[in-house]
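INTERNAL AUDIT FORM
Audit reference: QA-55
Scope: verify that the stored structure record matches its stored sequence.
Auditor: D.O.
Record contents follow.
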Amino acid sequence: MGRHAMAWASGLLALVVSCGEEFTAIDADGVGGDAGIAGNGGKPGSGEAGEGPGSSQGEAARAGQSGGGKTMHAVGGMSSSVAGAPGAAGADEKPASGGEGGETSFGQAGSGSGDACQPAPPLVAGAIAARCVIGASPVVDAKLTEWPEGAFSNTLTYAGNPHLGTWANNPTSDDANLSGRFAVAWDGDAIYVAGRINDNARQRPDTVNLYQNDAFEVFFDGDNERGNYGIGDWQMIVDTSGAGQLYHYPSAMPAPPLPSNVKVAVANTGVAANWVIEIRVPFANLGTASPALGQLLGFDVVLDDADTLARQRSLTWKNTAPNVCNCAAPPNVNPCEPYCNTAPFFQVMLGGR
C-alpha cells in the first residue's frame, strides 16, 4: 500500500497518496498555485491551465508551493511517495486561473516508492534470484497461476545436471523419464518454491522413506554457512501424494513429517505422469527472522524417480563441492552430496520484483 504524508505550505495542507503508474491530483476551493519539485525521481508538472476548472498534465510525485486555500489529493496505483517540505515551483509550471473546482493534473509517481521489493539488488555470482512477491503472495494450491512461465528458468535434466541411477543416455527418453523446472519467490514471511516435473510413470512404493518414490526434494541453509547440517538447515522431501518429510542429517530415520506451518500442494498436469508442486516455508523455520533484499540462503533441489519398487534415478540441480565433505555412502558417485552436507548447495538471493 502507499504511504501517506502531510505537509503544510502557506496555509496549504497537501495530502499525497501514490501507489501506481499514475495519479490524479484535484484541487478545490480557491485559486490554484504552483506545483513543487517532484520527489524521488518524479519531474515537475508542466502545462498551462485553462479557464474555469483548468487542467494541466505532467509528472509529479510531491506537492510544492501553492496558492492560499488550495488542497491537493493524489491517488494512484502500485508505488508511493511521501510529501515533504514545500518545494519551489517547477520551471514550466504556471498558476492555474479558474473558478470553483480548481485544476486537475495527471502524472507518474516517482521511483522512490516505498515498495519493499525495490530497488532490485544486483544478482550475486553463484546465485539465482528469488522473485519478491510482497503484497502479491502466491496461494499454495498447485495451480501456479501467480507464477509467470518465465520464472521457471532453473532446469534439471540428465544431460545438464549431476545424476544417479539408471538412464538410457538418450536426451529425449531420459527427459521424459525424469526432468523438471522450478522457480523461487519470497515475501516478508516465507520463501516459496514451485516445480514442474516430467515423469513417464507414477510410482509410490514406499510410505516410510519418501525419497524412494517419485518425489521433489528442496534444501535450505538458512544462514548460508555451508557445512554440516545445523539449525536452519533443511532437507524437505515431498512425493506425488503430497506427503512430506523433514530430514535433518544425521537425525534418526525415518524422518518426521513436515511442520504444520509448512504448506505443500501437488497436482497432476494430465500429460503423461507429469506433476506440479508448490511449497511455502516460513523464514522463521530457517532461522531467518528478518528477510531482506539481497540476502543469500544456501539452496538446492533434487528430483527422485521410482519406476518399480524403489527409486531408480535422481537428478541434483547443483553439486558445487562434490569432494569436500566425504559424507555420502555408495552408490553415490560424489563423496559429498546435498543430503548429508550443505557445502554442495548453490545459493538463492532474495531479489526484487
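Auditor finding: record pair retrieved intact. The longest helix spans residues 171-177.
Action required: none
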